[in-house]
Amino acid sequence: MLRTSRLIPLKKDDGSIRPIAVGELIYRLCAKALIISHFQPDFLLPFQLGVKSIGGVEPIVRLTERVLEGSAGAEFSFLASLDASNAFNRVDRAEMAAAVKTHAPTLWRTCKWAYGDSSDLVCGDKILQSSQGVRQGDPFGPLFFSITLRPTLHALSQSLGPSTQALAYLDDIYLFSNDSQVLSKTTQFLADKQHIIKLNEKKCKLISFDEIRQEGFKMLGTMVGGKEKRAEFLEGRIRKEMAKVGKLKDLPHQHALLLLRFCIQQNLRHLQRSLRSDDLVDLWERLDTMLWEEVKRMRMRQREDTVEEETLGRSLTKLPARLGGLGLLSFKDVAPLAYRSAAEASDTLLDNLGLLSSPEEPPTPVPQRTRCAELWESQQEAILRNLGDTERKRLTENASRLGRSWLSVIPYLQPLRLSNVEIASGLHDRTLVGSSIPVCRFCGSDSPLGHDELCRARNPWTQRRHNAINRVIYQHLKQIQGATVEIEPHTLSGQRRNDLRVRGSSALAFTDYDLKVYSLGDRDARSTVTPCAPNGKLADFCLDRCVNWLDKVGQVVSKNAPKVTGGVFKPIILSTGGLMSRSTADEWKEWREAMPVGGFEKMEKRIGVELVKARARTLVL
User: Fold this and answer.
1) Residue 492 half-sphere exposure, CB side, CA atoms within 13 Å?
2) What does each C-alpha distance from 141 to 31, 53, 133, 138, 602 come to in angstroms?
3) Model pTM greater than 0.85?
4) Computed from CA positions of residues 371, 376, 379, 384, in that sequence, does the dihedral angle turn out positive or negative?
5) For the Reverse transcriptase domain, which residue ranges apply (predicted)?
């Protein structure tokens, strides 16, 4: 049963079928664990990429770029690309077992168990037998396929001689050569090895680097060559993404925002690393504008933004959610950093293969994450320095764990669903714009950002927000083993009650909790605008000022708390945007350890949703 897989036939662009075998969960987990713990680099040839290799296809693309630039260690005139027909399913399992036993003996018994005899493939109500090749979808598949191909690639490399350099990403094989007959020689060499790899001669191609410079060459999901061909390629990909964005208008805004953040904006991220685009900045900027226009559509603002609001909104949209932004990262900003990091990592690998001309070692690669983190932190600091007190506090709340949790909520249950108006309210918060109406229709005062939840002339949502969050906490504390949770228990102070009481044999036993939700726009709250600039990061300064005030409020709540019998009192202090006091954060950690797996994350998302709903009730779009 462990080797049984569900067969899913996927249609390729050319109309053929790609059979994907999704294995049993425990099998896949064990396979990944074995690969992580037992894989050794010498299982494969140095030029075999695709299994625990840095950058994936990037070193092959990078070598092509360097040959075009004339900065490679050796001069090559031709590039041959080999296309294998039905590569993974064609491999002879006897050859695979022999290769694994020779080059990866620690995994031989595992290989024999996984592929020693046929296994079941479940497709609808039919059961097929897998008796040849490796299953596409099996974590072992790429490794065992590459090991099987190793002897053949080694023999091919020896046959072609030192004038040809092979680089392979799984079954995608590229030959850098000075021999114009390299493709025909390769075809002849592999003619009697079709039980291991069979070439699709119609798709194999030999092209000179002079042709690549003029006509471009599509390889491994990207394009190399002149600016015109690269621009044409990228523009075509962007048009496809724009068509997808255009279809979001038919979806609820919560679904559309999830697809925009986690799917559509991710589709072209790999090109930022593999496609040279330093001269295509205008195309990346067009993609950034498309994302921003879609955010404005879902924000449903009733008037046009001012120039300042437009600039601020764009800046916040491209800031990561953990820094208070919307997380639609700027392609224009990230592309040069991503390409540079990919180039450095690829150069290191190519240098180890002796394919670089520089006598000096390439610089130590700086990860893309490091470069981008520095960029985003500097952008956050620049944004904060131009904001007022209310905006700084709102941005600080947006960066909190609770304040950003609603952005990743999948609405598979009714309590997790947000209406279009509620999503619009949340996007108003993330872009730091208030009501479209400059004068409050309820009290007649000016209506800047934050006025909506402080206006006393409106129907307050404070009690309903409090009760909703209290119920969420109650429901999840009840899941702790050994805990008995009581809602609104009596105290020793007359009619006064706390919100929750936990008793029983759990780690949280004998504790009374009282939930308080405060607005950082309260007139007693501490200002984040000071005459003198802080010495450290402004973001840390704003966070400390806000949390310090919440701590002070918590101390007052504890001091005035009603007396309880046989237990301790702990206040739960939150801001209306999801920030919490330090003592609440400590209690939060204890809850996380005590709750069942996944329960704590569900609680946080439910609370984040309730906070967004509460603000939406008072905001006039």
Assistant:
1) 9
2) 10, 15, 9, 5, 35
3) yes
4) negative
5) 1-224
Q: Which residues pair with 5 in a beta bridge?
A: 23, 121
Question: Identity (one letter) of the amino acid at 96?
Answer: M
Q: Which residue has the tokens 């999840």?
A: 476
Which of 336, 307, 58 is closest to 172 using CA atoms? 58
One-letter amino acid at 249 equals K
Q: Confirm if 515 and 449 have CB atoms less than 8 A apart.
A: no
In the structure, what pLDDT confidence band is assigned to residue 531 with cuts at 50, 70 and 90? low
Contact in structure between 492 and 563 (CB atoms under 8 Å): yes
For residue 542, the model assigns a pLDDT of 93
The pLDDT assigned to 532 comes to 59
pLDDT the model gives residue 534? 67
Buried b (16+ CB within 10 A) or exposed e, 296-316: bbbbbbeeebeeebeebbbbb
Q: Which residue has the tokens 């918060």?
A: 429
pLDDT (tens digit per residue) in 437-475: 888 888 888 888 888 888 877 877 889 999 999 999 999
3 pLDDT more than 90 = no
Alpha helices for 454-576 (secondary structure H): 462-477, 538-559
> In whole angstroms, how far apart are CA 472 and each of 417, 507, 514, 519?
15, 20, 14, 20
Do 163 and 179 touch, CB atoms closer than 8 A? Answer: yes
- What are the two backbone dihedrals, phi and then psi, of residue 442, each rounded to the nearest 5 degrees? -95, -40
DSSP reduced 3-state for 84? strand
The pairing of beta strand 5-11 with beta strand 119-123: parallel
Q: Which residues contact 197 (CB under 8 A, 6 or more apart)?
A: 84, 87, 90, 91, 149, 152, 171, 190
- Dist CA 407 CA 39 (whole Å): 38
Which residues lie closer than 8 Å to 88 by C-beta, 6 or more apart?
Answer: 133, 134, 135, 136, 141, 145, 171
Cα separations in angstroms, 20 against 17, 111, 123, 132, 459: 9, 19, 11, 14, 56
* pLDDT exceeds cutoff 80 at 15: no
- Whether 443 contacts 457, CB under 8 Å: yes
Structure tokens at 548: 């310090």
CB of 157 closer than 8 Å to CB of 166: yes
DSSP for 435-453? -S-SB-TTT-SB--TT-TT
Compute the distance between CA of residue 359 and CA of residue 344 in angstroms, rounded to an integer: 16
Please report which confidence band the pLDDT of residue 370 belongs to, taking 50, 70 and 90 as the band edges.
Answer: very high
> How far out from the chain centre does Cα 522 lie?
36
Distance of alpha carbon 257 from the chain centroid: 14
Average of per-residue pLDDT values in the chain: 92
Residue 73 has pLDDT above 80, yes or no: no
pLDDT digits (tens, 9 = 90+) for 114-173: 999 898 889 888 898 888 999 999 999 999 999 999 999 999 999 999 989 999 999 999
598 contact partners, CB below 8 Å, separation of at least 6: none
Least Cα distance to 148 among 81, 109, 93 occurs for 93
